[in-house]
Amino acid sequence: MCDTLVSLSDEGVLFAKNSDREPNEAQVVEFIPAARHEAGAALACTHIEIPQAPRTNAIVISRPWWMWGAEMGANEHGVVIGNEAVWTRRRPAERALLGMDLLRLGLERASTAERAVSVIVELLERHGQGGACSHSRPGLSYDNSFLLADPSGAFVLETAGRQHATERVRARGRSISNELTIPGFKRAHSDWLHGLVASAGRRRQLTEEAACVAEGPADLISALRQHGPAGSPSWSLVNGALAGPCVHAGGLLASSQTAGSWVADLRSEPLHFVTATAAPCTSLFKPLRVGEALFSEPAARNHFDEEIYWWRHELLHRATLRDHAGLLARYRPARDLLERSFIEEPPPALEAFKRAEAMERSWLAEVVSSGVGEARPAWLRRYWQKIDRRAGLREGLAA
What is the mean pLDDT of the chain? Predict the structure, then answer.
């Protein structure tokens, strides 16, 4: 599950996405430089090989640890793309390009959002889409929708197998979630039941309302942190905390966790704000420009590793979940203050990440020493204990 939104005004374009994945699926933010490739070279995507392009753009992406493709990203030309899982009435191909592969290919091969639409459509028609979309649930496969933007505007691209529909965004705000939205295409292809279970319409209403009034990155960051009407996560046995775009796992039918978040300010020189962690409510959005140096880490996996920033933040996130409202309140003012300074005077990415992690370590110490008890229902606590065991997190390590 995911939510992607764009805000268009006379001042320019703002873009944002929450990427919702499996709760133990670490997501890495990485820079890939521009490159030239030999004629006839092959490119290994997640499940299949395709011909490589003669030249690929410099990109920054947020990528689930196990796949080649990306959930969201930007390129050196100011193009940004986010994708959504959508369920249609067609049966997905067993091995083809993932929607995440198509997203990365669009960033690598296009210099405008409009051209990125063409790149994705050409590759979709040639190679199709399908294959396992989850490492822990290899039977999970879906179609995709995309929101693509650059400093001049934005497009929505929706797909069902090799079929597709495109819409140029003309409204003040536009968002997509886990259901088709282009009217004629939706009537022809939508599987409405999956969208209902995912609460896609409810989340899309929240993000589109926010996109229509956003004036800067802080407004879209706030939009990504929404938990729905309750203000804090409200868990359902059916679909966890899918009432708002800031998603926390816990449902029996749908159990996604926001595993990474991204905001792009394209109004002048493109500037991006990324969490590189799960749970935007417990995270800081750090500034990042395409081409800036990023920290070096070993390869991430779906298992706790203290050398991986995403996993180190999980200690804070999962400790806060014990009593989300009470514990987040202890460090939310400091989170907002530091983040405001990042927006007003963006430091280099490495400096921002170092300052953010130092603050997060202090918040974790405060949360752990707070003495606040467990506020979650027993079934939800058991669910997270199982998730922690799968990740190799010892009992009490994040509490």
Answer: 94
Catalytic, out of 2, 45, 246, 281: 2
Residue 2 appears among annotated catalytic residues:
yes
Question: Hey, what domains does the chain have and what are their CATH numbers?
Answer: 2-304 (3.60.60.10)
pLDDT-based confidence at 142, cuts 50/70/90?
very high
- 3-state helix, strand and coil shares in percent for the chain, rounded to the nearest 5: 35, 25, 40
Cβ-count burial 125-138 (b if 16+ within 10 Å, e if not): eebbbbbbbbbeee
SS3 at position 264: strand
- pLDDT of 96 higher than 70: yes
Separation of CA 227 from chain center: 16
Greatest CA span in the chain, whole angstroms? 62
Strand partners, 240: 236
State in Å, rounded, how far the first CA of the chain is from the last one: 27
pLDDT recorded at residue 347: 97
